Amino acid sequence: MIDPKTFYLPMAHILAQTRIVRERLLPRPGEAEVSADQRVEPVDVVARAFVPDMPRVYNIAQMFKVPSSRAHTLLLKHAGEEFAKDEIIARHKRTLEQARVIRAPAPGRLLAEHEGEVLLEMMPAPLELKAGIKGVVANASRFGVVIQVAGALVQGLWGNGKTNFGVLKVLGAVREQPLTAELIDVSCLGTIVVAGGALQPAGLKQAEAQQVRGIICGSMPATLCAAALAAPFPVVITEGFGAVPMAGPAYELCRASNSREASLDAVARTRWGASRPELVVPLPARDAAVVTETPRAYAAIVRNVRVRVTAGDEIGRTGHIASDQVRAREFESGIRVRAAEVEFDDGETGWIPVNNLEAYI
Amino acid sequence: MSTEPVSNVVSILAADVGSTLTKAVLIDLVEGEYRILASAEFPSTLEPPWSDISLAVLQCIGRIEAIAARRLLDEHSTLICPQTSDGNGVDAFVATTSAAEPLRVAIAGVMRDYSVESARKAAASTYTLTAALSALDGETTKGHRWDLPARIEALHRQEPHVIVLVGGDDKAANAPLMDVANAVVMACKTWPAASKPDLIFAGNASARSVLAEMVGDSARLSSVDNVRPTVQSENLEPLETELEALFVERRLNRLPGIGRLVGWSPQPIVATSKAFGAGMRALARNFESSALGIDIGGATTTLAISDHGLIQRVQRSDLGVSHNAEHVARAAGIANVLRWLPVEMSEDEAWDWLANKSARPQTLPVTRRALWLEQAVAREAVRLALQDLRLRWKPSGKPELADLLPPIDLFIGSGGVLTHVPHPGQAVLMLLDALQPVNVANLAMDTGGLLSQLSLIASVQPQAAAQLAAREGISVLGTAICPMGAAKPGEIVLTYNLAYAEGGALSGEVKAGEIDILPLEPGRRARLELQPARQIDLGQGRGRPGKLTVEGGLVGLIIDARGRPLVLPAEPAKRAEANQQWQYNVGA
């Protein structure tokens, strides 16, 4: 329970060693394929369910070029009847012409017909839910599984909705290094590439060409969102849009994890969604045994709490809270708001609005 | 003179849980009059990691306790209610919220410009996002049949929470309506039970029984009166009421943490936009003619016009200055946002800022560039919402002006982007730019954030609402004189003489393209005489002089001689220079 008299900050996790507990949920109830305490790899199927496909509507009259009143007579299946994949559902034979047929695209049922059109309800298709991360199953049910893993965790700001795993490959020698096309060569094939700077449009194209398994960057131009959403692999940015370098601790953690296997979950955050995009680097089993702590989701504004700035000219800078006091301060724009004093990692100090701070550990 | 409360409610805690900010105010009797004792704001806690809207309310209460030196929460963090004999706690708690996810509504109907448009207007009265519009006539204009497969697929893809089916006036044949109904029913039949949308029928009443038979158990069907009983008439209220009820049931009442707030009050938690409309109605009782309320939130923009006692409300759940900042720019066009800036800014820089703001909606603009951009987004959000308002509001007894609002007596701005400006001149400029009032208009700000609370406060203690509205809730910005008519830049538009009630006078002239502020502090009155140029109209006819008594405000007397409709310089540098000059003129 939070204390009504204390200021809190939301927290992003940048942790070298922590206990990560993640749910993998089916879109509808199904069956778990694993049991508690079982070890899983990212590619393992942990649960299965049958998910209904989109219904299909075929305009029989238009496909056979006949009046809609006649289409009914060409149907071999009628309302309520089931069909198998490739089974003929309508047939039209003209004199001196080979019969033309319409086959079912998948198993299903003819639900209704109306003026030459038929509505096909498709049989639910099997859906396989993969673990996505390497770990141990903590709980399994018909709704999905909970997987627990000890490892390094870097949470981001924005993701393109995709997930993948692979070996982490840090590109460039400095944190500000933009992800350009030149940095991505054939050695990046099958890896999750990391760059501290901004993702460049040509870099994204080259990453696709070299079949990388994922990208994690400090930032990217907002105008690149559409292309990033269309990318076949996960894309995660950690700081924001524009040209903002990755926070130092996140970048150093990625460097320390270079060449290790990692999972990148670029979950797309929504206003009502609970998850953040994240990079998980599992620890070797011998180190994992000592990690028992699960990180908190928020932190009180007290001296020495690690913070990063999330807006304004200082965006991306990291440091720690220098004083327990939260005071009203005026800023360049003229707004007067509650602010906290931050000592940045380079030794400078400054007042930052509480709203523009995020704690991290 | 002391005021005895009419009920036993003396102290009230009122809270508004917004999508970005949560606010709370403590109201109590001070020397016989209801006053705001303390107020507090805290970033809303709907989203992770908090996922509990009541936490921000608790944070606000914690701050109010410190300011008012009075305990409001017990050891279990429960509101002490009613007030105890030692002065702790409050007698009543009321709350509004705009934090809930809007209902996604798909509308299917027969004629796009009639029944479908009426349904769209009704949907705009509450927190909805219109996900899909399908109209039979829209699909058959080129001689093709209605594209049934495409319609069904579209309905599925949009994943609506509600499908509104409309069509046919009450004397029309039902065949076209049944074509549309068939597509909707087919779509409903193939929906998984868990995500099946509700179906509301608001079309030709004679089709109800046939439709009910078609739908069977494939959807939860409710029928309300036809939104378009005749081609010429609309009846939006029954559909509006049904959608509002669904929003409350499916969204508002399911907000995480709302249970704690509900437990504190016998009053239901009300949607902010509905309460805002009711607040405007309560406030407008003091005005004989017209008042327009503008509430710009992080995710939602609401306009409520009170025109001779009648209230019309428009709700745009896709327009706001934080969560939906990016969407505003996409809907309005980024160039339309950038045109309001007093500096030049590249589209790329603007898109980056907008994306950051949408990704982290609770961040604040600490630089001037960021503040100007946020205020530019606010102008465009209002402009877009205004287009919807103009569709549903027919001004009573006033001439319609192309692309402009008719003369309105009072404009009241609400929402953090307007009420938390560093200088009130910025709020004036936002209102003038976005609304472009004509003739004479009074501008005010809902500084106390009470407008959406007034009706709820009135329900527990009417005197408190009346006294707060009159004294504390609203800050007058000033009277704006907005002449119409063509004039070249630099030409004299009008001359004025301002005679202060307590003595002294000021006279001068205002040139085309300028905004002038004449000093007139809050509480002061003056007699204003205006002599417009021959081609300029102040609402009395071209060239005809005007005399009126004006009251002071935080900014003063404002003369906006930029012309209507407002045309900005086409060249970016000149446009930025003009915006800069106007900012300077209003003191911002």
How would you concisely characterize the structure shown here?
With 361 residues, chain A is mostly beta strands.
Structural class of chain B: alpha/beta
Largest interface: A-B, 56 and 59 residues
Described by strand count, sense and barrel closure, the largest sheet of chain A is: 11 strands, mixed
Oligomer: heterodimer
Termini Cα gap of chain B: 39 Å
- How much strand content do the residues of chain A show? 35-45%
Task: Throw out a few tags for this protein.
heterodimer; A: 361 residues; mainly beta; eleven-stranded mixed sheet; seven-stranded mixed sheet; 6 helices; 45% strand; elongated; B: 588 residues; alpha/beta; eight-stranded mixed sheet; five-stranded mixed sheet; 18 helices; 22 strands
Report on this structure.
The complex is a heterodimer of chains A (361) and B (588). By secondary structure, chain A is mainly β. Chain A contains 6 helices and 27 strands. In chain A, strands 2, 4, 13, 14, 15, 16, 17, 18, 19, 20 and 21 form an 11-stranded mixed β-sheet that branches. Chain A has a 7-stranded mixed β-sheet with strand order 22-1-27-23-24-25-26, with no helix packed on it. In chain A, strands 6-11-10-7 form a 4-stranded antiparallel β-sheet. In chain A, a hairpin with a 2-residue loop joins strand 10 and strand 11. Chain A starts with 7 loop residues before the first strand and ends with a strand. The two termini of chain B are 39 Å apart. Chain B is 34% helix and 24% strand. Chain B is built from 18 helices and 22 strands. Chain B has an 8-stranded mixed β-sheet with strand order 13-12-11-14-15-16-22-19, sandwiched between helices. In chain B, strands 3-2-1-4-10 form a 5-stranded mixed β-sheet. With 588 residues, chain B is of the alpha/beta class. At the A-B interface, strand 6, strand 10 and strand 11 of A face helix 1, helix 4, helix 5, helix 12 and helix 13 of B.
